[in-house]
């Protein structure tokens, strides 16, 4: 073994000993992992607005939702969630407008020429 190889071997052994002696750091798996981990811990009161009737109420939201809002830069976040009354009522969806009598083919009466 040459001097260079011995130095490299010693440096590698010293580095391996240093790495083994340090405590293992918990790796952060990203924002999603933090939110999942903190989801149900320490819920905080929050303002919630119904998107249909616009009534405001107070409820508890998980800490993960608060952290996500703080990351977005919201100081006093307001969440949307339907209230009990609006969630029980069936939603009225705007369907196609009813055809007028002149446009409805089944309501057309035969004329004298068609007889």
Care to describe what's here?
Residues 68-92 have a biased composition (Basic and acidic residues). Residues 62-115 are annotated as: Disordered. This protein is α+β, with helices and mostly antiparallel strands and 115 residues long. The chain has a domain at 31-85: Dna Ligase, domain 1, CATH 3.30.1490. 36% of the residues lie in helices and 13% in strands. It has helices at residues 3-21, 31-38, 63-71, 84-88; strands spanning 44-49, 56-61, 78-80. Strands 2-1-3 form a three-stranded mixed β-sheet. β1 and β2 (56-61) form a beta hairpin. α2 runs antiparallel to α3 (63-71). The longest helix has 19 residues, at 3-21. The protein is elongated and about 115 Å long. The termini are far apart. The mean pLDDT is 76.
Strand and helix map with partners:
Blueprint: H1 3-21, H2 31-38, E1 44-49, E2 56-61, H3 63-71, E3 78-80, H4 84-88
Parallel strand pairs: 1-3
Antiparallel strand pairs: 1-2
Summarize the structure.
The protein is of the alpha+beta class and 115 residues long. The chain is 36% helix and 13% strand.
Per DSSP E runs of 2 or more residues, the count of β-strands stands at 3
CATH architecture of the domain at 31-85: 2-Layer Sandwich
The unreliable regions are none
The biggest sheet amounts to:
3 strands, mixed
Binned, the helix content reads 25-40%
Q: Mean pLDDT, as a whole number?
A: 76
- Individual helix count: 4
Region (Disordered): 62-115
Biased composition (Basic and acidic residues): 68-92
């Amino acid at each position: 073994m040459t001097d260079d190889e011995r130095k490299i071997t010693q440096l590698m052994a010293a580095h391996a000993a240093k790495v083994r002696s340090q405590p293992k750091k918990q790796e952060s798996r990203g924002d999603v992992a933090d939110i999942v981990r903190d989801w149900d811990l320490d819920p905080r009161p929050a303002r919630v607005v119904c998107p249909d009737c616009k009534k405001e109420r107070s409820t508890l939201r998980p800490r993960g939702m608060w952290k996500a809002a703080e990351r977005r830069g919201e100081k006093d976040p307001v969440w949307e969630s339907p209230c009990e009354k609006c969630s029980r009522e069936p939603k009225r969806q705007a369907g196609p407008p009813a055809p007028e009598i002149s446009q409805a083919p089944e309501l057309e009466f035969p004329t004298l020429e068609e007889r």
